[in-house]
Write a structure and sequence with these properties.
This protein is mainly alpha-helical. It has one domain: Orthogonal Bundle (Cytochrome Bc1 Complex, Chain D, domain 2), CATH 1.10.760. It is about 45% helix and about 0% strand. The chain has seven helices and no strands. Helix 3 crosses helix 7.
Length: about 160
């Protein structure tokens, strides 16, 4: 093999490697595991109601906790980052308070979400209030959106 053939061979290997890395990152999202579609709250947990729902000022504590505990992965505004999904999507915000509380409390190690059961229960409910303040983002995919509860379609599900 002459010098030019070796150079083209090296460039070809490098380009192939870049394509594989790019496909892996795009296929999995911009950093992390794909969302676990089996991460569904039990019915009794989903039915729980937030005891702080009608208490003025309770959401301020949720904002402070969010910045301390959640913003590192989900971004200051909940729109996601390379570490965690966008929480300001219609799919996430449509979940019940009980479901969000359960997910915050139990975590999902397969999906990269730690459990926050060590926080007192009132603080976890305040985090749910913070999530309720988020405004849904557009349907456009941004960094972190790939794991934020995309709709699960089955053969019987109607299409939009």
């Amino acid at each position: 093999m002459n010098t030019n053939e070796r150079r083209f061979s090296s460039v070809g290997i490098f380009v192939t490697l870049l394509v594989v890395i790019f496909a892996t990152v795009v296929g999995r999202g911009a950093g992390g595991q794909e969302r676990d579609p089996t991460w569904i709250a039990p019915a009794d947990a989903a039915r729980r109601t937030n005891p702080f729902a009608n208490r003025p000022g309770a959401e301020a504590g949720g904002e402070k906790l969010f910045q301390q505990r959640c913003a590192t992965c989900h971004g200051d505004n909940g729109r996601g980052s390379e570490k965690g999904p966008n929480l300001a999507t219609a799919d996430v915000l449509a979940q019940t308070d009980g479901t969000l509380f359960w997910k915050i409390s139990s975590g999902n190690t397969r999906g990269g979400m730690p459990s926050f059961s060590f926080l007192p229960e009132p603080q976890r409910w305040q985090l749910v209030l913070k999530l309720r303040e988020l405004q849904p983002t557009s349907e456009a995919v941004t960094v972190g959106d790939r794991f934020a509860n995309p709709p699960i379609r089955t053969a019987r599900s109607p299409t939009r």
